[in-house]
Design brief:
single chain, 230 residues, mainly alpha, elongated, DNA repair, class I DNA-(apurinic or apyrimidinic site) endonuclease activity, Endonuclease3_FeS-loop_motif
Length: 230
């Protein structure tokens, strides 16, 4: 199959596997989503949701984050990795929102990436989930799955992976594909112990085939060893 047929096959399979894939970061508005995604860098969504459950009760708007000492905010997000840097970025971000955007999160990719702690991935997540603008955010799951399935090359950087996905995936499917690739990588094609034996996309995955081949060799050796002892 050609590249278009291949991506269509992948999209259809992951749609069957994860029809309800969605953003798992709890939020109720663009501002909360921006804070949650900023906190999620090098941290699981599960941990972020535990922290924001109380954080979003205490801090409702940018002014609230600036109304406490930095040390207090650090303590409030202490369970999050890199909490000191993230606390500092949150306060800087909130100052910019107040001074430049009347306290509102900008609804543009350019405006978002100007904010401290907000990179391209975070901006894509906010644009697609908060403002319904089609986007594909390449996190570790999307990057891993794209390379395992041969959508991108192993040495491609995240921007190159994003561009290849944007070229191959129909624009109206960018956002849902982003969510489904994350679910596929988080719950099926994991970094460690991926579910290769039951993967419907194994035929497209060189790494998976190698894992299965290596596993079968180990199994055969073990069986021969047991038989020899008998």
């Amino acid at each position: 199959m050609n590249a278009k047929q291949k991506i269509r096959h992948i999209l259809d399979i992951i749609a069957e596997m994860f029809p309800d894939a969605h953003c798992e970061l709890n939020h109720s508005n663009p501002f909360e989503l921006t804070i949650a995604v900023l906190l999620s860098a090098q941290c699981t969504d599960e941990t972020v949701n535990k922290v924001t459950a109380s954080l979003f009760q205490k801090y409702k708007q940018p002014e609230d984050y600036l109304g406490v000492p930095l040390e207090e905010l650090e303590q409030d997000i202490r369970r999050i990795g890199l909490f000191r840097t993230k606390a500092s970025n949150i306060q800087k971000l909130c100052r910019i929102l107040i001074d430049k955007y009347d306290g509102e999160v900008p609804a543009s990719h350019e405006g978002l990436t100007e904010l401290p702690g907000v990179g391209r991935k975070t901006a894509n997540v906010v644009m697609s989930n908060a403002f319904d603008v089609p986007a594909i955010a390449v996190d570790t799951h999307v990057d891993r799955v794209s390379k395992r399935l041969g959508i991108a090359k192993l040495d491609d950087n995240v921007l190159e992976v994003e561009k290849k996905l944007m070229k191959l995936v129909p624009q109206e499917e960018w956002t849902v594909t982003h969510h489904r690739l994350i679910f596929f990588g988080r719950y099926h094609c994991k970094a460690q112990n991926p579910q290769c034996p039951v993967c419907p996309l194994l035929d497209l995955c060189k790494e998976g085939k190698q894992r299965m081949k290596a596993g079968n060799k180990t199994k055969n050796k073990a069986e021969l060893k047991i038989a020899g002892r008998g």
